[in-house]
Amino acid sequence: MSNRLENLVGALAMRISDEVEDLGPPILEGSVAAPASALTTIGLHPGISIRWLSHGLTLSHPGTVRLVDRLVQAGLVERRSAEEDGRAVSLWLTEKGNDVCKSLLDKRGHSVAGLLKSLTNQERTQLEHIAEKLLTASYVGEAMAVRTCRWCDGEVCTDCPIDAAMEA
């Protein structure tokens, strides 16, 4: 049986998710969500493998390969030989991909900031501490961490609670 707090937190999570999903026109023909999430994930984890990207996006490996093919064709991502294994592929944003990624993160930041603008400074600090605690408690492995942080701005979140949970 759900209580009111569970409903409110669930509804807020959906509202924030909807805000992020509606960031503007598609990056590639068709969808906004998967290509945008792929770019922000690669931007946060330069050199990520297709395998780990597929975990972060919860896409099949073949689906992720097709998505990466489209991002490469659009000039947003490049494949490189992985440093540790020349047969493996690592993914990197191109200059154009970096620009698109930064734009997406800026839009996401403005969108979420709009939802938070009604909070006082004290409430914002309290919410920050609560969010850190919930994210730390939710950690169950690296694949979940990649998925959870796929829209994070690594320049802003330098003391990530998920990273701290991974290291613990």
Please, could you describe this protein's structure?
With 168 residues, this protein is mostly helical. It has one domain: Arc Repressor Mutant, subunit A. The protein has eight helices and three strands. A three-stranded antiparallel beta sheet has the order 1-3-2. β2 and β3 form a beta hairpin. The protein is globular. The two termini are 33 Å apart.
Write the layout of secondary structure elements.
Layout: H1 4-21, H2 33-44, E1 48-49, H3 50-57, H4 61-73, E2 77-81, E3 89-93, H5 95-116, H6 121-138, H7 142-148, H8 161-167
Helix pairs in contact: 2-5, 3-4, 3-7, 6-8
Task: Write a concise keyword list for the protein shown above.
mainly alpha; globular; single chain; 8 helices; Arc Repressor Mutant, subunit A; three-stranded antiparallel sheet; 168 residues; 3 strands
CATH superfamily: Winged helix-like DNA-binding domain superfamily/Winged helix DNA-binding domain
Overall 3D geometry? globular
The strand line-up of the biggest sheet is 1-3-2
Amount of helix: 55-70%
Largest sheet: 3 strands, antiparallel
Poorly predicted runs are: none
CATH hierarchy, class:
Mainly Alpha
Order of helices and strands: HHEHHEEHHHH
Structural category: mainly alpha
The radius of gyration is 17 Å
State the helix count: 8
Question: How large is the share of residues in beta strands?
Answer: 5-15%
CATH fold-level topology: Arc Repressor Mutant, subunit A
CATH architecture: Orthogonal Bundle
Overall pLDDT: 86
Please indicate the count of domains: 1
